[in-house]
Amino acid sequence: NQPKIPSMGLNPELLNPIDSHHRDSQDDLKSVASQSTEGEAIPDQDILESIESDYYETDGSFDSCRHELKKLPAKLNCKDIERYYKKLKQQQQVVSKKVLQLILQKQSNCSDEFQEILKIQDQLQEVLETCRMARYDLNLAKKQFTTASLGILANYRKRQTVQQLLNSLNNIKTL
């Protein structure tokens, strides 16, 4: 179940339309270039290590096209250019493959973390509802306590009044 890796880069036939009489010589060059690299199965790690450190710059000012154009010799050789193009394309494919593998690896971690976040969010909703109910119940208890306290105070006052009345009646009776 190997993940599909997108093929990136530009097709040289799209960049340089070839006349029919140049097509045969170009096909010969391509076959020579492919024989030189296809016969040698280079591990991905070696290809990654062969990439120049300039490509890893993070300041954002690096221009890979300009960098490669500066490296070209004054006298151009089609075979060398085809070989170098094949090498760059191979490096780009290995980097794309590695990036895709890292994305897929991190995607499962991200998915797990996202599920954990959703679980915590549900728990927070439950806690919030519990807090709301507790506040409502506390407010209700406060009102009931206040009502009961006022009732007790009213009864106590009535009792005091009745006791004073009884004392007054007893005083009148003894006279």
UniProtKB/TrEMBL annotation:
<feature type="domain" description="Vacuolar protein sorting-associated protein 54 N-terminal">
    <location>
        <begin position="48"/>
        <end position="175"/>
    </location>
</feature>
<dbReference type="GO" id="GO:0000149">
    <property type="term" value="F:SNARE binding"/>
</dbReference>
<dbReference type="GO" id="GO:1990745">
    <property type="term" value="C:EARP complex"/>
</dbReference>
<keyword id="KW-0813">Transport</keyword>
<dbReference type="InterPro" id="IPR019515">
    <property type="entry name" value="VPS54_N"/>
</dbReference>
<keyword id="KW-0653">Protein transport</keyword>
<keyword id="KW-0175">Coiled coil</keyword>
<dbReference type="InterPro" id="IPR040047">
    <property type="entry name" value="VPS50"/>
</dbReference>
<feature type="region of interest" description="Disordered">
    <location>
        <begin position="1"/>
        <end position="43"/>
    </location>
</feature>
<protein>
    <recommendedName>
        <fullName>Vacuolar protein sorting-associated protein 54 N-terminal domain-containing protein</fullName>
    </recommendedName>
</protein>
<dbReference type="GO" id="GO:0015031">
    <property type="term" value="P:protein transport"/>
</dbReference>
<dbReference type="GO" id="GO:0042147">
    <property type="term" value="P:retrograde transport, endosome to Golgi"/>
</dbReference>
<dbReference type="GO" id="GO:0005829">
    <property type="term" value="C:cytosol"/>
</dbReference>
<dbReference type="Pfam" id="PF10475">
    <property type="entry name" value="Vps54_N"/>
</dbReference>
<feature type="compositionally biased region" description="Basic and acidic residues">
    <location>
        <begin position="19"/>
        <end position="30"/>
    </location>
</feature>
<dbReference type="GO" id="GO:0032456">
    <property type="term" value="P:endocytic recycling"/>
</dbReference>
